[in-house]
Design a protein that fits this description.
The complex is a heterotrimer of chains A (744), B (102) and C (170). In chain A, 68% of the residues lie in helices and 1% in strands. Chain A is an all-alpha fold and 744 residues long. Chain A has a two-stranded antiparallel ribbon. In chain A, α2 runs antiparallel to α5, α6 runs antiparallel to α7 and α10 packs antiparallel against α13. The N and C termini of chain A lie far apart (144 Å). Chain B is mostly helical and 102 residues long. Chain B contains three helices and no strands. The longest helix of chain B has 31 residues. Chain B is elongated and about 50 Å long. Chain C is mostly helical and 170 residues long. Classes of the chains: A mainly alpha (744), B mainly alpha (102), C mainly alpha (170).
């Protein structure tokens, strides 16, 4: 079915809207009916997915799509700030679909849709409501807050799609913040859940932690956006990224920080936002604790959408970040920062993942590590490789997370059956059982086969298993880019991280699926239940893409296989930049390194764990000794942050601001003024009002009284005295009148 | 001849004696008698002036007659009052009739 | 000193003396009799001033009516007043001083009018003439008829009034 260009342009801004509509409908109307809620959510998400794929596939038909010229999208004036005299343009809003957006639309919409479908099963739809279930805690029966979950997921999808199609940094930031909100809502979805161990973080606190940590990054990002707007007069991608003169101007204008140009400062500030959102060091602390949310949320946030948004923003702003850089020249400061932090994070997170026992925590640190790969790749200028890895990572990480969710459900199932079957007692009598602990699993390959095979595919993709998995091709592209640029520090750092990645992935797979079941729960685990159907569907589809997605990006210069399929990905995505990036040269060292670390890591893992028995010491722990504890406790970063940052912040707000400033100073001043006014009033009353005002009134009355009393003595009632006075006055008057005349 | 001023002096003296009597006597009837003295002094004045200045017109005498008449009626009423007061309050001492005071 | 003057002086002295006795007598009846003497002296003065009708009226009215009335009043109010003891009240000193001051002031005021020293009275009409003109004056509407009538009404009022006031309300 073909569409006109106008229709395509319209579709670009229609894409984010169906999930928003779903959110509104569920919240306002359908939240009582679970069936209606998930139908609305999945249906409208499906509409979005269809529109996204229509736009994407139409873009494939455009010859030489991109280069800032042939792109889809709309643009309209929003705020009339434009002033011809100062050269600023009106603030515009709109959409932009270029090759990068096309790729994002392709996998984001698909991943979101699959996660929605998966959530139907994960929330135990079809099961009866369990009377023991408290809303806000993980349920045994159907999830009590079912509709709310789908509403939040829809809002999340809206935020992500908005961010993807945005054509300016402001709209991107709006989508960014919407996702921040949704991550808070969804991580803390089971808000009433509490743990007996006070050290263990509850979902509520994890949600606040996620929000606050990303907020730190967002603040710097906003500063970057504002500074960019001040310097460039516009935030529109078309005007900044596709215009070489603007980029040149930004790269050569000195900024407020000596030694750095404007584009460097803006780039560093924007990168700070990504450090927060994509959980790079030092703002990585929120992501592992975000595992407190339900597993579809973890998949959504940490694989398909939110953390990818951070990397997407960096890929989008790459022309600005690399303004003034040429291949072979020294890296610009933002790129240097990205390379350094990305590499360090990749290695750092991988070391922690090796010592984790929770199935989801391993995947969380793995995500942090893989994001580090992508950031480092951008840092050395391997633009296409970074985008490639972003896409493949979305597929296999989502697959792994959803698979872990399926495993957790299966083990819980088994736990309940074991408890009822063996003892027939209430679960409350049994000790607390953690269904997410890998050391409580084992032998699930036979009990949950579909889950096992899809998880295996995802794990192999993550490790970079050669040729048949997508992860291999994308990781190889990254290592190749690092080697080509001569950035050996990055190269060896990422290689080491890849080795550890393969190792801990194999460790995870063996502990979870192989060997003999180590607990009764694992013994009775199963995936034969109606709730697993939607979950398994999603897993299978994702597994397909985890395998095939890599085949669109095989470099042409690759021996034997290169040239069989054109490097479509490179051709297509290269259109995002103004100048097409050069094709990657084939470097044998990169290929050999990829093969060695991937296969070597898998082999090491297999050797270490294949004989693992129940209650034995973890081989890694035996190897590392005391260092194991440091790794397991994440290098104590959380504790350090807590002491250095969090507690002083609380003190500042609770004690300093609230008690000393607000109650003491401000309220104190007000009270003082109040009391002083009262006293002043009293003084006025006592010293002026009563004596002067009342006094004068009383004085008049009293003096009249006294005068009257004094004068009334005259009235004696005795006539002769009256007459006497009359005579006296007559005499006086006569004298006065006559005396002058007597002089004559 | 007798100068006019002698007559006037006589009238003045008589008047002043009457004034003294009005102011200084206790008995109300005595006060009334003193008032008659004052009126007589006035009469003397009037007639003296008539005689010395305008004897051809009867106005002087006429005036004196009127004064005389008025004095008579006033004495009658005054004495009636005194008798009435005497009946009520059993006193004729002017100082003791002092109800109209504060 | 002509004979007129001497007669005048003697009469004046007698009148004044009687008047003084009126205001100082302890016994009220004596005071009333002295009053009669004073009236008589005034009548003689009137004669000296050639106002014969007035002298006669003075005697008849004052002595014959008013003085008698006063004596009656004294009689009727006699019981409560002692004839012994001082007859003056507290302010008699002030009154005396005042009357002396008044007298001297009046005397001093004579000096204001020089014509008072004139000795010669104006031309005197005959006694008949005086009486006649006076009589005509009483009843002539152009002269003094109205005061005459009003005086009559006043007398009537006084008559009725004093009867009403002094009537015994038993």
């Amino acid at each position: 079915m073909s569409f006109t260009l106008d229709q395509i342009h319209t579709f670009t801004w229609l894409i984010p809207l169906p999930p928003l509509l779903a959110f509104a409908l569920i919240v306002l109307f359908t939240n009582r009916s679970k069936l209606l809620s998930h139908t609305v959510a999945i249906g409208l998400m499906g509409v979005s997915w269809v529109l996204s794929w229509i736009v994407f596939f139409n873009s494939l038909g455009v010859h030489d799509f991109g280069h800032g010229i042939d792109i889809f999208g709309i643009k309209f004036d929003w705020l009339p700030f434009g002033n011809a005299a100062t050269g600023t343009t009106p603030l515009t809003m709109g959409t932009l679909v270029d090759p990068l957006t096309g790729i994002m639309l392709f996998f984001v919409s698909l991943a979101c849709l699959l996660i929605f479908i998966y959530s139907v099963g994960y929330s135990n739809y079809g099961k009866a409501a369990d009377s023991h279930d408290q809303p806000g805690t993980p349920p045994h029966g159907v999830e009590p807050l079912y509709s709310r979950f789908f509403a939040y997921l829809s809002l999340f999808a809206f935020g992500m799609l908005l961010l993807v199609v945005a054509d300016n940094l402001l709209l991107l930031f709006v989508g960014w913040e919407i996702m921040g909100l949704c991550s808070f809502l969804l991580i803390g979805f089971w808000h009433a859940r509490d743990y007996p161990d006070p050290k263990q973080i509850t979902p509520r606190r994890a949600a606040v932690k996620a929000f606050m940590t990303t907020r730190v990054g967002d603040m710097f990002m906003l500063l970057g956006i504002v500074y960019l707007y001040a310097q460039a007069g516009t935030l529109n991608f078309r005007d900044i990224l596709h215009d070489p003169s603007v980029l040149l101007k930004l790269a050569t204008t000195p900024s407020v920080i000596t030694g750095l140009m404007v584009s460097h400062v803006v780039g560093l500030l924007l990168f700070a936002g990504t450090i927060g959102k994509s959980a790079q060091f030092p703002l990585h602390v929120w992501l592992p604790d975000a595992m407190e949310g339900p597993t579809p949320v973890s998949a959504m946030i940490h694989a398909a959408t939110m953390v990818s948004a951070g990397v997407y923003a960096m890929i989008r702003m790459f022309p600005l970040l690399s303004a003034g850089w040429e291949h072979g020249h020294p890296l610009t400061p933002p790129m240097l920062a990205m390379a350094a932090i990305g590499t360090f994070t990749a290695l750092f997170a991988a070391t922690i993942a090796v010592a984790q026992s929770d199935i989801k925590k391993v995947l969380a640190y793995s995500t942090i590590s893989q994001l580090g790969f992508m950031i480092a790749s951008l840092g050395v200028g391997a633009y296409v490789a970074a985008a490639f890895h972003l896409m493949t990572h979305a597929f296999f990480k989502a697959l792994l997370f959803l698979g872990s969710g399926s495993v957790i459900h299966g083990v819980e199932h088994g736990h309940r059956h074991a408890a009822h079957g063996a003892h027939g007692e209430h679960a409350a009598a049994a000790p607390v059982f953690d269904p997410q602990n890998m050391f409580n699993m084992g032998g699930l390959a036979k009990k949950m086969p579909i889950t096992y095979w899809t998880f295996l595919i995802g794990g192999l993709a993550l490790s970079g298993f050669p040729f048949i998995t997508a992860g291999f091709w994308s990781k190889d592209a990254i290592l190749g880019g690092a080697a080509e640029g001569g950035q050996w520090f990055v190269f060896f750092g990422l290689a080491a991280a890849a080795l550890l990645t393969a190792f801990y992935t194999m460790r995870q797979i063996i502990l979870t699926f192989h060997g003999a079941p180590r607990t009764a729960a694992a013994e009775h685990a199963t995936e034969r239940d109606s709730i697993f159907v939607p979950m398994l569907i999603a897993l299978v589809v994702l597994a397909f893409f985890a395998v095939t997605a890599g085949w669109v990006g095989i470099p042409e210069s690759f021996p034997v296989l290169g040239g069989l399929l054109p490097n479509w990905f490179h051709e297509y995505l290269g259109g995002t930049l103004i100048e097409h990036p050069p094709a990657e040269a084939f470097l044998p060292i990169a290929l050999w390194t990829s093969l060695i670390v991937a296969l070597g890591g898998l082999l090491l893992g297999w050797l270490a764990y294949r004989h693992y028995r129940k209650d034995a010491v973890d081989p890694v722990q035996r190897l590392l000794g005391p260092m194991f504890g440091v790794l397991r406790d994440k290098y104590y970063f959380d504790e350090v942050y807590e002491t250095v940052l969090v507690r002083p912040a609380y003190w500042l707000s609770e004690t300093f601001a609230s008690v000393w400033l607000d109650k003491g100073l401000i309220d104190g001043t007000l009270h003082l003024i109040g009391r002083a006014s009262m006293r002043l009033g009293q003084v006025f009353r006592d010293y002026f009002d009563l004596p002067v005002v009342n006094g004068s009134g009383d004085l008049v009355g009293n003096s009249v009284n006294r005068f009257g009393r004094a004068f009334r003595i005259i009235q004696t009632g005795k006539v002769q005295q009256y007459l006497l006075i009359v005579m006296a006055i007559v005499v006086v008057l006569g004298a006065v009148l006559l005396l002058p005349g007597l002089g004559r | 001849m007798v100068p006019l001023s002698w007559y006037l002096a006589l009238a003045a003296a008589l008047f002043c004696v009457g004034v003294y009597g009005v102011l200084a006597r206790k008995n109300a009837v005595a006060i009334l008698m003193s008032i008659e003295l004052m009126l007589n002094a006035v009469n003397i004045n009037l007639v003296a002036f008539w005689h010395y200045l305008t004897p051809q017109v009867p106005s002087g005498q006429m005036f004196t007659m009127i004064v005389l008449t008025v004095a008579a009626s006033e004495a009658a009423v005054g004495l009636a009052l005194i008798i009435s007061i005497y009946r009520r309050r059993n006193t004729v001492i002017a100082e003791e009739i002092d109800l109209m005071k504060w | 000193m002509t004979s007129n003057q001497i007669i005048f002086l003697i009469t004046a002295a007698a009148t004044l003396g009687a008047a003084l006795y009126v205001v100082t007598a302890r016994n009220l009846v004596h005071a009333a009799l002295a009053l009669i003497a004073t009236f008589f002296g005034v009548a003689i003065i009137f004669v000296l001033l050639q106002a014969g009708f007035l002298a006669a009226a003075q005697v008849v009215l004052y002595i014959g009516a008013i003085a008698i009335l006063i004596i009656f009043a004294i009689m009727l109010t006699r019981r409560v007043m002692q004839d012994t003891g001082p007859q003056t009240n507290r302010i008699w000193g002030v009154a005396a001083g005042l009357s002396l001051i008044t007298f001297s002031a009046l005397l001093a005021s004579f000096r204001l009018v020089p014509s008072l020293q004139q000795v010669t009275p104006a031309a005197q009409p005959s006694a008949d003439q005086v009486i006649k003109s006076l009589g005509f004056a009483f009843v002539d509407p152009n002269q003094y008829l109205l005061p005459f009538e009003l005086a009559s009404v006043l007398l009537l009022i006084a008559l009725i009034g004093s009867i009403v006031i002094a009537a015994d309300r038993k």
